[in-house]
Write a structure and sequence with these properties.
TIM Barrel; 3 domains; seven-stranded parallel beta sheet; five-stranded mixed beta sheet; about 40% helix; globular
Length: about 575
């Protein structure tokens, strides 16, 4: 274990030196030591103790001292000093396949890119291709490397796992003898990240079905396969478990394998109190099965209403079973109020986005390109924004009988709490989203004050992706969400549930708090292309996990009611 740890640190030292422009021979010496440590067949501590480590070619006096320092203290001072000289997120970029230290140094010095989130954004904007030595192929390779890092981080984001599972379900249903196939596990509960993909099937010949499943083109490795269960690894080391369940137990198994564990424990306790036994095979009175073919009858026999999968987290769904919310549904959404076009870093023109929203049946929409300080995203200065406003207003007139088109902006909340545009320009917009894109590492009190301050501005309607997190890429900022929610209530400001599967921000527990305080949520996609408008589904899933109903979400209003509301200033 120590061999691997030391090898990783020596490689990191070499990476940090290369990023900071150190002499090539010094960098090479650290990489050589790392390689030696990786290839050792004996424990490094034993080799150091008996003097054999010092005799290995390539391990010099300085390297030996650093190894000894680590074994004694768990740290190497040279490494610590180098880490302090670069931004916190920069080291994580070294984990991206296709992205070497020299390129990282270029991105940092030329574009101030210091983490994976900024890198993804820069790639989407097309700005990276303009740098020396970069090109479409290299950028594509880096983009794939980012995807790999995300997928191999231990937890799989919902937006990656769900399409994979749905494709597998489609294939399984085509196998002869399969009568039913359903997603289970945390994926069915639409958790923001999942561990493995769980699928349940009902089939006449389980072994044949599982044999065919293990031969799917996606399968890289078969871990186990029998007559009732098969486990495989597919692309990016994702594990998929498929179980074959008899019809009479399918509902019980589906409930059991959907979880959560805490929810299931509560159900089993209720069953025991009723002198019943609940397990994955059914609900039993003595040895007689009294329910199990479907989930609804399980809950009914336990004197409970059917509880939607998204609520099964033991967060009050049992205690409040008699007054569960009527959860929001995709059909309730009447418009999308956060999207980007080619005016900033989007991939489609304003007119293309308008037509795409019409195709999705929306009654209204808002185009919200970036403000000037988001230079990496092609943010608009005052002159460009005014031209953009005029152009979108012409399109709004053209399409007014089909959809209400608003012109807005996603305006940066600057590090000092000021907005990127003055109030005179904000007044020319129909809709203003205020978002933090920089200085996300500020202490809690400072970043919270920034957002509290802008909510007092009468032109700011919505706070975009309030915590700034990027799943598997960037932690949420230290912002005090409870204070933000209170200020939102006091200033009649709406909070965004950003549907991009990389964000899902606000998260479910914050949404529930906002609901309890009477703060309105706006579910938006932050789409940078037509296809990304369909990310709205991930926002809906998260909203349901946050117990949101139609009346909690502002963009469920009809066109008439929404337009009347948006024309009003905040109180």
């Amino acid at each position: 274990m120590k061999n691997e740890e030391l090898a990783d640190i020596f490689n990191e030292i070499a990476d940090l030196m290369e990023i900071q422009g150190e002499q090539p021979f010094r960098i090479a010496s650290y990489r050589k030591v790392a390689r030696i440590l990786e290839e050792l067949t004996e424990d490094v501590e034993t080799l150091l103790a008996d003097g054999r480590l010092a005799k290995i070619p390539g391990i010099g006096k300085g390297s030996l001292e650093r190894i000894e320092e680590y074994l004694k203290t768990g740290k190497i001072s040279t490494h610590q000093e180098l880490v302090k000289k670069v931004p916190k997120g920069l080291l994580k970029l070294t984990k991206v396949p296709g992205l070497g230290p020299k390129t990282i140094a270029l991105l940092w010095k030329e574009m101030d890119i210091t983490d994976i989130g900024q890198l993804r954004k820069a790639i989407n904007s097309g700005m990276i291709e303009k740098l020396p030595g970069m090109g479409a192929k290299k950028v594509e390779k880096i983009s794939k490397g980012i995807d790999f890092v995300i997928r191999s981080s231990g937890r799989i984001p919902l937006g990656i796992a769900l399409p994979i599972a749905e494709e597998l379900i489609t294939q399984i249903k085509k196998i002869a003898g399969v009568k039913k196939a359903e997603i289970a596990g945390s994926l069915r509960r639409r958790a923001e990240t999942i561990g493995d993909i769980d699928i349940l099937t009902e089939a006449s010949d389980g072994q044949k079905v599982l044999e065919k499943f293990t031969k799917f083109r996606q399968v890289r490795e078969v871990l186990a396969s029998g007559s009732t269960k098969a486990s495989v690894r597919i692309q990016d080391n994702i594990q998929v478990d498929v179980r074959v369940i008899p019809a009479e137990s399918f509902g019980a198994a589906w409930q059991y394998f959907t979880g959560s564990k805490a929810h299931n424990v509560r159900l089993r306790k209720i069953a025991i109190e009723k002198k019943l036994k609940l397990n994955e095979y059914g609900l039993f009175e003595n040895e007689k099965q009294i329910a199990g073919a479907n989930e609804e009858e399980i809950y009914h026999k336990l004197s409970l209403p059917y509880i939607p999968p998204e609520l099964r987290e033991d967060r009050g769904e049992i205690e409040n079973a008699d007054k569960l919310p009527t959860l929001i549904d995709r059909k309730d959404i009447k418009g999308d109020l956060h999207m980007h076009t080619t005016a900033s870093d989007g991939h489609n023109s304003p007119e293309e986005m308008i037509r795409a929203c019409i195709e999705r049946g929306y009654e209204y929409m808002c185009i919200t390109d970036h403000s000037k300080s988001s230079a990496i995203a092609g943010g608009l200065d005052e002159t460009r924004l005014r031209k953009h406003i005029a152009a979108v207003r012409k399109l709004a007139e053209k399409y007014k009988n089909e959809i209400a088109v608003l012109i807005g902006s996603e305006v940066d909340i600057l590090a000092d709490g000021q907005l990127d545009y003055d109030d005179g320009l904000l007044a020319e917009l129909d809709f203003v989203i205020a978002s933090v894109h920089s200085a996300l590492s500020q202490p809690a009190d400072k970043i919270t004050k920034r957002v509290l301050k802008v909510m007092e501005n009468p032109y700011v309607r919505l706070i975009g992706h309030p915590t700034g997190r990027l799943l598997a890429q960037r932690e949420a900022s230290a912002i005090d969400v409870a204070k933000i929610i209170k200020q939102a209530k006091d200033t009649d400001t709406w909070l965004e549930l950003n549907s991009s599967w990389q964000r899902l921000d606000l998260k479910d527990v914050h949404l529930r708090l906002a609901k309890q305080e009477g703060v309105k949520i706006c579910i938006c996609t932050d789409a940078h292309s037509i296809d990304q408008l369909d990310y709205i589904q991930y926002g809906i899933y998260t909203a349901r996990r946050g117990w949101l109903e139609k009346e909690d979400v502002i963009n469920t209003l009809s066109r008439k009611k929404f337009m009347e509301l948006v024309k009003q200033r905040k109180r």
